[in-house]
Amino acid sequence: MKASFCRAFRAAAFSGGYTFFGRTKTQGTAMLENDIALRALLRECRSVAVVGAKDRPGSPVDGVGRYLMQAGFTVYPVHPMRKTVWGLAAFSSLAELPGPVDIVDLFRAPEHCPAHAREVAALAIPPRIFWMQSGIDSPEARAILVALPITVVADRCLMVEHHRLLA
């Protein structure tokens, strides 16, 4: 019921399947500040690729990655230089992941987001959510993903939103 509601809601609300959740309205971009839809979508998601993953204590990415693991997500650290993060094997790119993921969570500066959006667009099975963490937004990345059935979240923390909506 939840899954079908969310798919139907997204299909009815946004032609092309693209949904944008963010803090500011951008001309030409559909924007939805709807906690019900985001909550339903987050309930369905179980796997996260954390791009820019580092296990540096006290860093935002470290806290979010550990929270996601404790919350029951299957976490795939993505970092081109690291072999392991949080005791998990790290992958150098999204293309190297063992299978599709539900969420791509970016801890990269905005200028790197378009390259990751192109990487997501090239995947055989795209994620359901392309998430740019707090302080990160890229209109160019959003433009790349607009034709795909992907929800784009910008300038929000996945940990904070998950805890707020599902805890």
Automatic annotation (TrEMBL):
Residues 41-136 form the CoA-binding domain. Pfam families: CoA_binding_2 (PF13380). Signal peptide: none annotated. InterPro entries: CoA-bd, NAD(P)-bd_dom_sf. PANTHER family: COA-BINDING DOMAIN-CONTAINING PROTEIN (PTHR33303:SF2), CYTOPLASMIC PROTEIN-RELATED (PTHR33303). This is Succinyl-coa synthetase, alpha subunit-related. It comes from hydrocarbon metagenome.
